[in-house]
């Protein structure tokens, strides 16, 4: 699939990978975890395929057999070596050896890798003969190798050998214009027809994705797993994405409210706690601008969602399938929301609890009457009998 995106930085990197494909010069690919470093390395190899592409997970090269894994061994080289074995370096001969997370490579193996880069040869464990190899070294890391060198955890001479050409992949938060294309490709890979709702896409675009492309793919896979489609809703998003969306909306309300100024008493700023300004006020540090409390009747989105679910189940007398249709979500999503809000498996109505909520008490007619119009029963459904 290669590096996906139309942002200027991704287009530049793809152009560089294509130009470097035929070269045998070492390449160091840096970037946060999940940015697609191995994908970039494979695209570099595919630009001018030659031999094999052999990925080497440096984080797994630990223990007494790590040198054997990398360079191979002769028969009888150590206890348990019943036959000779080729190492990953020899397997990559004539092709490309991709050292994934090279910053995790143990210091004792860094010396041996340096010799491979300098002399183009290695010696299997237990052998006195050196084997010549023709390989291209491509390395990737999420670490700052210059800092690792300064801390004594990475050899400076090896760093300079690897750092002939360096490519840095941007995190997903710096190229959000590429997110819709990535989402589209991930949905296509499921083999089914799915569409992300506008509200869900807004939340996806507003999230910073600390796990980058890997986290985004996991998010899409999770949404598909919980929803039979074809429309994927905001409620299908992982909790961290939903919470980030709520936080950004609350921040927007606070900033808008701040434009009207805050109250100050004796040089100290005071921020009202709770909604409607009903809670106690706590002093904020001097110089901090205050945010007036939201007007009475403004509820947190998770509270609106919980009440909407309660109202739908009360309206349908516990028919969870119809309630999910009213709410515009899948039935499995409704089950998950009920579990998140602490309801028994059957829900508040099915368990004879339509008059109470584990989170907010009574669901009386007075409570329902005071709920926002946006979550009142849909006019497309007649009143339940």
The largest sheet has its strands arranged as: 2-5-8-1-9
CATH architecture of the largest domain: 3-Layer(aba) Sandwich
The total number of structural domains is 4
Amino-to-carboxy terminus distance: 54 Å
Q: Per DSSP, what share of the residues sits in E-state strands of 2 or more residues? A: 5-15%
Helix/strand-derived class? alpha/beta
- Rg, nearest Å: 29 Å
List keywords for this structure.
single chain, 385 residues, Rossmann fold, 4 domains, 3-stranded antiparallel beta sheet, 16 helices, 40% helix, elongated
Provide a compact summary of the structure.
It contains 16 helices and 16 strands.
Could you characterize what this model shows?
- With about 375 residues, the protein is of the alpha/beta class.
- The chain folds into 4 domains: about 10-170, 3-Layer(aba) Sandwich (Rossmann fold); about 175-240, Helicase, Ruva Protein, domain 3; about 260-300, no CATH class; about 300-375, Arc Repressor Mutant, subunit A (Orthogonal Bundle), CATH 1.10.10.
- Helix content is about 40%, strand content about 15%.
- The strands form 6 sheets. It has a 5-stranded parallel beta sheet with strand order 2-5-8-1-9. A 3-stranded antiparallel beta sheet has the order 12-13-14, with no helix packed on it.
- The two termini are about 55 Å apart.
Topology of this structure?
Blueprint: H1 8-20, E1 27-30, H2 37-46, E2 53-57, H3 66-71, E3 72-73, E4 85-86, H4 88-91, E5 96-100, H5 107-119, E6 121-122, E7 131-132, E8 136-141, H6 145-150, H7 156-162, E9 165-168, H8 179-188, E10 195-196, H9 198-206, H10 212-226, E11 231-232, H11 239-258, E12 264-265, E13 268-272, E14 281-284, H12 301-315, H13 320-327, H14 331-340, H15 347-350, E15 356-357, E16 361-362, H16 365-369
Helix pairs in contact: 1-2, 8-10, 12-13, 13-14
């Amino acid at each position: 699939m290669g590096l996906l995106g139309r942002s200027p930085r991704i287009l530049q990197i793809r152009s560089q990978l294509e130009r470097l494909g035929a070269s045998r010069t070492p390449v160091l690919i840096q970037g946060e975890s999940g940015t697609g470093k191995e994908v970039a390395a494979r695209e570099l190899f595919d630009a001018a395929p030659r031999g094999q592409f052999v990925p080497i997970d440096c984080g797994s090269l630990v223990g007494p057999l790590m040198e054997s894994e990398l360079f191979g061994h002769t028969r009888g080289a150590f206890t348990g070596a019943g036959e000779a074995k080729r190492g990953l370096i020899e397997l990559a001969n004539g092709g490309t050896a991709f050292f994934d997370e090279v910053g995790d490579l143990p210091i004792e193996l860094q010396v041996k890798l340096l010799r491979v880069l300098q002399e183009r040869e290695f010696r299997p464990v237990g052998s006195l003969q050196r084997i010549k190899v023709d390989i291209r070294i491509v390395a990737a890391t999420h670490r700052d190798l210059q800092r690792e060198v300064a801390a004594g955890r990475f050899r400076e001479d090896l760093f300079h050998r690897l750092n002939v050409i360096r490519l840095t992949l941007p995190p997903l938060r710096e190229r959000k214009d590429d997110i819709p294309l990535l989402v589209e490709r991930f949905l296509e890979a499921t083999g089914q027809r799915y569409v992300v709702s506008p509200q869900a896409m807004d939340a996806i675009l507003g999230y910073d994705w600390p796990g980058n492309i890997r986290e985004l793919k996991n998010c899409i896979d999770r949404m598909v797993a919980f929803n039979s489609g074809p429309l994927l809703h905001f409620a299908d998003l992982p909790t961290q994405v939903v919470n980030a969306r709520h936080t950004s909306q609350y921040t927007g309300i606070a900033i808008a409210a701040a434009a009207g100024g805050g109250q100050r008493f004796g040089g100290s700023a005071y921020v009202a706690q709770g909604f409607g300004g009903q809670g106690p006020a706590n002093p904020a540090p001097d110089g901090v601008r205050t945010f007036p409390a939201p007007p009475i009747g403004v509820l947190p989105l998770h509270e609106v969602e919980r009440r909407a679910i309660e109202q739908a189940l009360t309206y349908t007398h516990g028919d969870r399938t119809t309630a999910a249709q009213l709410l515009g979500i899948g039935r499995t999503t409704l089950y998950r929301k009920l579990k998140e809000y602490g309801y028994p498996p059957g829900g508040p109505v099915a368990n004879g609890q339509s008059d109470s909520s584990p989170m907010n008490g009574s669901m009386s007619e007075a409570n329902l009457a005071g709920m926002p119009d946006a979550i009142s029963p849909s006019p497309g459904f007649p009143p339940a009998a």
